[in-house]
Amino acid sequence: MSIARNALRPTLTRMFVARSASLHTLPELPYAYNALEPHISEQIMKLHHTKHHQAYVNGLNAAEEAYAKSTSTKEKIALQSALKFNGGGHINHSLFWKNLSPVNESGGKLSEGPLKDALERDFRSVDDFKKRFNAATAAIQGSGWGWLGYNPATEKLEIVTTPNQDPLISHVPIIGIDIWEHAFYLQYYNVKADYLNAIWNVVNFREAEHRFLEATK
After folding, report:
1. In terms of DSSP bridges, do strands 144-151 and 156-163 run parallel, antiparallel, or are they unpaired?
2. CA distance 189 to 182
3. What is the average per-residue pLDDT within 106-116?
4. Dist CA 14 CA 84 (whole Å)
5. Fewest beta carbons within 10 Å, which of 7, 92, 95, 118?
């Protein structure tokens, strides 16, 4: 299943049920598990990728197989939550890994350009954007995701949150931050603010700008 921008527009059912020649698989990380240290530990990255993301992939494959085999409308309706949860988990994490980059590469570096200009236009400054983003994401009750999304209707960048593993459908995702405890607890315990402050050091703004430019074509 493609996780490109256009894959986010169809309905969840169409996205998750359309079968391809092969099953969904765990994408490889574009860096080593220890490459984001000290901001995100090797232990967290390895568990997050090989255990949690893999579980969403397995769950999505199982739900799609069950849906394809089912001849009961009631059973297909019952499978919607599994498709949404595991499909969203796979989409979100596949985006998340590309959101990040080691400090000695693109991590934390926002150069002059269209994305920075848009952030300053819509949030007054990059620092104000980060503060507002962190506050909104930390306020999520339970688990979820914080997003910087592009709203095609307003043609502006907006901060959005989604619960659980719900993918961002209303906006084009530019940056997504996982606020599930498995993303930070082993290193930051229950202090979400420390995790959110640290992760900006490894956010791949080059990738974010690429998504922004694609969204605004």
Report:
1. antiparallel
2. 10
3. 97
4. 11
5. 7
How far is residue 32's CA from residue 35's CA, in Å, rounded to a whole number? 5
Q: Which residues contact 142 (CB under 8 A, 6 or more apart)?
A: 163, 164
Residue 8 DSSP code = G
pLDDT(15) > 80: no
**Cα–Cα dist 22/57, whole Å:** 12
Question: Six-digit token pair at 146?
Answer: 């914080």
Quick check: helix, strand or coil at residue 10?
coil
Q: Helices H, strands E: what count in the chain?
A: 10, 3
Eight-state DSSP code of residue 83: H
Integer Cα distance of 125 and 93 in angstroms: 28
| Residue whose pair of structure tokens reads 């994305």 in the numeric block | 115
Residue 9 confidence (pLDDT): 47
Give percent of the chain with pLDDT exceeding 90.
90
Look up residue 139 and give its two tokens.
């306020």
Q: What is the mean pLDDT of residues 161-183?
A: 98
Q: Is residue 184 helix, strand or coil?
A: coil
Could you read off the pLDDT of 112-143 as tens digits, one per residue?
999 999 999 999 999 999 999 999 999 999 99
How many CB atoms lie under 10 A from the CB of residue 99? 23
Give the residue from 171, 158, 172 showing the smallest Cα distance to 122: 158
Q: In angstroms, what CA-CA distances link 200 with 107, 131, 145, 196?
A: 8, 11, 15, 7
> Is pLDDT at 70 greater than 80 in this prediction?
yes
